[in-house]
Amino acid sequence: MDKPLFQVVFSDGGTFIGGDYNKTLWSEIPTNKKIRTLFYLLPSGDYLGLGGYDRFYQFFECTTDLNGKDAGIKNLEFIYLIGQRKEGTNIYQIDLKTGSINLKKLNNDDIFLTKLNPEFWR
Prior knowledge:
Blueprint: E1 6-10, E2 15-17, E3 35-41, E4 47-51, E5 55-64, E6 74-85, E7 88-95, E8 101-106, H1 111-114
Antiparallel strand pairs: 1-2, 1-3, 3-4, 5-6, 6-7, 7-8
């Protein structure tokens, strides 16, 4: 069995298991429960554990070849995980080709954060 894309542990001890890249199940995470820890699958097969945040967000960055033999095929390049708390917001950029993780810190009022679809905060 393949590993799930992510696993959530709620503050009440309950859990939620995510899907895969094609159907993440992110939007099905209950919004009425606080997430204590989010474990997200890395290209290495290990999990990145994130905790101590008030809420989380995820999105993917894809490229599409416009010419050539793979024209029209979407290629998943990066996963972005966002953790937000009163002190600020951290964005974890996971490069799916190299496995590297870059961290960017933002203020909670950053214009970028205001443009995210509010329905997908968990």
